[in-house]
Amino acid sequence: MKITSMSLYAIRLPLKQPFVISYHTYNDMPSIIVKLETDEGFIGYGEAVPDEHVTGETWESTFHLLKNTLGPSIIGENPLQIERIHERMNKVAYGVPAAKAAIDIACFDLIGKKLGQPIYQLIGGRYHDEFPITHVLSIGEPEKMAREAAERVQMGYTSFKIKVGTDVMEDVNRIKAVYESVKNDAVIRVDVNQGWKTSAAALKGIRALQSIDIDWLEQPVMADDIDGMAFIRSKTDLSLMIDEGLKGQREMKEIISKNAADRVNIKLMKCGGIQPAVKLAYQAELAGIECQVGSMVESSIASSAGFHVAFSKKNITSVELTGPLKFSKDVGDLKYDIPFIRLNGQPGLGIVVDESTLEELTVFKDCIS
């Protein structure tokens, strides 16, 4: 089996409501969909959701890099040889993990369809039967966030991620408001998205929240400040998760050596796809670190890929892949059984891509062969 062509679609996924985090407000989500075709007639889909604040890539740069550099490097290659695919991509471009993730995901979709197996069977087999879905509360007024959380509890949700990262004490008020509204019915997690910046500010927030039962606190300091995370961890018994600070194996090694986190958030867009994500999960397992698979608010394509990784690994204990629930239109048909996610046993990603919706959401496109 050989890859014969690659089609690229630069799309914008419409959100039901703006998504607000510490460093940006998203009115829609820009994404690049990759469609690989082979000489045996198989079609595989992948997705890149780049973020200049996290992966250092933009929507436009990712499209052109895939078209002019990464795509040509894998035409004629056998997608079954996934290590070789990554080697070829790494030779022609340094970094750019979201772009590489799109090709990696499409290759795994092809492999699964070729072998008649879901992707999780290719990377260790199914370990988990289901995961509870965590509802993400974007930054807003405390009362509004608390009201939204209470409404979601009535829908069956049992865990919430609170997005904060503006002023520390304003964030404390947001967290307390949500906690008071759902404390008897759900667990809460707090994601600062680097917004508190320094370890001193983070400790100020943590001390103000001592009376609150928080499942974990995610990335309070800047991404590269792994020393800061280690310092915070030495001063508190609150469970800490690293997100933006973990990109690949080098960062994981430093996190482990410095005892900088209790948990890590693995995202396919940060590390380069399914294959690198599996390697990170194994690396974390050796150090006794629990993992979450998160997302950059992705469509059914990349969200499905993340779920396949999560369902196959014992030390991946939570997921945050709710992008499809936030869109008013999606290119795929990933099914959620709220408040749970359960994967089907269909080959590859296990989803059907709606080509008409894909075309409708496309802003520009191209094809190489």
Secondary-structure blueprint:
Blueprint: E1 3-21, E2 24-38, E3 43-48, H1 59-74, H2 82-92, H3 97-115, H4 119-122, E4 131-132, E5 135-137, H5 142-154, E6 159-163, H6 168-182, E7 187-191, H7 199-208, E8 217-218, H8 226-235, E9 240-242, H9 249-257, E10 263-267, H10 268-271, H11 274-286, E11 290-294, H12 300-311, E12 316-319, H13 323-326, E13 340-341, H14 355-361, E14 362-368
Parallel strand pairs: 5-6, 6-7, 7-8, 8-9, 9-10, 10-11, 11-12
Antiparallel strand pairs: 1-2, 1-14, 2-3, 4-13
Helix pairs in contact: 1-2, 1-3, 2-3, 5-6, 6-7, 7-8, 9-11
Active site: 163, 267
EC number: 5.1.1.-
Keywords: Isomerase, Magnesium, Metal-binding
Q: What name does the CATH topology of the largest domain carry?
A: TIM Barrel
Structural class, by secondary structure, is alpha/beta
Low-confidence stretches: none
Order of helices and strands: EEEHHHHEEHEHEHEHEHEHHEHEHEHE
Query: Largest sheet, described in full?
Result: 8 strands, parallel
Give the number of helices. Answer: 14
Look at the structure and give the CATH class of the largest domain.
Answer: Alpha Beta
Report the end-to-end length measured between terminal Cα atoms: 15 Å
What is the CATH architecture descriptor of the largest domain? Answer: Alpha-Beta Barrel
Number of strands: 14
- Mean pLDDT, rounded to whole units? 97
Tally of distinct domains: 2
Keywords: Isomerase, Magnesium, Metal-binding
Cofactor: Mg(2+)
InterPro entries: Dipeptide_epimerase, Enolase-like_C_sf, Enolase-like_N, Enolase_C-like, Mandelate_racemase_C, Mandelate_racemase_N_dom
Binding site for Mg(2+): 191, 218, 243
